[in-house]
Fold this sequence. Notes:
This protein is mostly helical. It is built from 13 helices and no strands.
Amino acid sequence: MVMAEMEKDCKQIEIAVQRHRKMLHYVTKKCLPLLESKLKEADDKSMSWKDRALKAEGKIALLERQLEEKTTQANHFKKLHEGQYQMMIKIGSVMGEIVWKSFKSHSNVKMLIQAQETMGKYCALTKGIVDSFMQAYGNNLPPVQSMEHVFVISVLGAITNLAAFAEGRAFLAQQEEVVQLMQKIVLDQERWSFPQFRIMKRMVLTFAYNMSLEDPVAYFMLSEEKLVSCVLRCLSLNDPTDVVAVAVAIIYRLLSTSLQAGIPSALPEKIPWAMIKTMKNSSDKQLGEIATSLLNVMEISDAPGF
């Protein structure tokens, strides 16, 4: 009985040993090689990614150096450009002032007008300068002490002086770009504030007045309702009288022109006559005189005919 049980136990142990050997064989021959293969594959991938990371770090470092070099170069060119820009503005201001003063001479104007092609280029240059200035700054004009402001004032002053003489404004009236420039800056000046830009506003309105002394320009202005309305809004009892006086002079010129040419116009109905009567007694002699002249024109005109 005992021997039978021992034999049975031995067989079971032998079966267990065989199973263990088979399992050991499977693990050593199948699993371990597979694991080794997977580990090697993972190690290879790890090395590959490590190499890529090192290369990427190298590229990043190179790009950072290149970016730093480009930034330094850009800053250098920016400073160089700003220096050149300021120099050109300063030169332009000086040259503009020279031309401005030159155009105060009637003989100089008559001589320069003879070179019509050159003066045509000058007009185009003037329009380009003023247009770019307005486009760059819009309502926020640079301070009056800035070189940009001084430069544009000199350019406007020159063309205003040119238009002060009959020969000059006759030439300018034939330049479509100059008439367009006049219209644009008169509309733009309404957005500029007092007292900071008083000189600029007066310069623009003076240029418009000088140009209006040419009948074709006056007819054009009368046909532009926005332009006339803009000038009318410059009439004020609270603003600097030197600026207001020029606006009154423009209205006086347009009203006189419409009367002389027999052009129907609604202008008399839009003029604030009560304000003009108050201006007649202004302590500013020029404003008082031009307001009186405007009232006289209205008194002798046939108002119902407008």
